[in-house]
Sequence to fold (454 residues):
Amino acid sequence: MANKPSIPKGTRDFGPVQMAKRNYIFNTVKGVFEKHGFSPIETPAMELRETLTGKYGDEGDQLLFRIMPRGQKVSALAQKIIEAQSANQKLVESSADEALRYDLTVPFARFVVQHQNELSFPFKRYQIQPVWRADRPQKGRYREFYQCDVDIIGSESLLNEVDLILTAHEVYAALGLPDVTIKLNNRKVLMGLAEVIGKSDQMVDLTIALDKLDKLTQEKVLEELTQKGFSDADLELIKPVLNLSGSNEEKLSTLKELLSTSEVGMKGIEETETVLSTAKKLGVNNVSFEVTLARGLSYYTGAIFEVTHPDFPSSITGGGRYDDLTGIFGLKGMSGVGISFGADRIYDLLETKDLFPEEIGVSTELLFVNFGDQEALKCIELAHSLRQVGVRCEVYPDPAKLKKQMKYANDKNVLFVAMLGSDELQNGTITLKNMTTGDQENVEQSAIVAFMNR
Fold:
């Protein structure tokens, strides 16, 4: 029996219409990226295991897809597992030399260090490629998905944060989603909070818990912090921060009082005020300071970003500042900042809101009906001329029944159908049918290029 065709959970096939829509997103995003001076790069789908592990925190490391060695190494591994079943997972992890990339940022840091002598700094890159996470598939969350990243590395200037906010603002305006909210926080603010409550050594526990506030209630988050060793007194100091409200300026003013004894916390507030005020001067008014925004990835050190939309349950863009990610590969002091656009989530949002342009599904503008060999040869000649001026056209390959050819045109959302039979071949005309209105028009064959370009 033949195997039933299927694909792994959390992955998807994309047909022609879906690919047209995805390419619309990629091209729109790419166009904005290039206007801001970002240059494209690509990195391999898989990286060495040691490149990726330890960069995303314990929860992130657990979601890495590890690649097992092949051949005799696997046989040897199987024997080891039989001999030591209690250590199965550790054996699998230690025997995997490579892993599929979890994101594009850590491979980018590796790329920068490896190619540092070929790059000019600050280096602005964009990258549009798939990533993989061994996550539990659910709505809006896939195991294989595309990210569209932009990063600026080799500069500590806060103008870079502003540049990324402008980039996000322009991308979503171009996609017809101007009602997004660009959320902004700073890891230094969170470090200051941990410092004020005397829990600097549990900064990671604090940020992991805060990062769950968009999924869990405040009570559940506080309960998790209690389980991590935070006292009732600690929680009483945290609660006012969790309940900040008002304008950006009002929230930051309140926070200044709460974090006044923390130098790092006050530095985070200062950086945030600079970014917010600059963005506002440039007319970007949808940036919201959110002190509970934490971003779980452990390599962030400064500004952190997230973009949300009221009609989508999770974030559609995220990123932040990382001061020394390249240091783990031997290049110290190379500060960078970047954001990542989740192409698959953006796709789902545009589909839900019916915001894809109608013409996206049109791959062929003009289809020539095939009435026979002689007629088809003339159609091929005309199609060749049309393609030279950018008209997307094709000739139906077989002299099938007209009904079948017209169904093919309808299925492909073809705009016009050209009918050139024996009579038209003899008198030098062609019948063009508008597939939207049903109207037909006879034109001279020599005028078809002008007709399609009018």
Remarks:
- Confidence is low (pLDDT under 50) at residues 85-93.
- The radius of gyration is 28 Å.
- The longest helix spans residues 16-35.
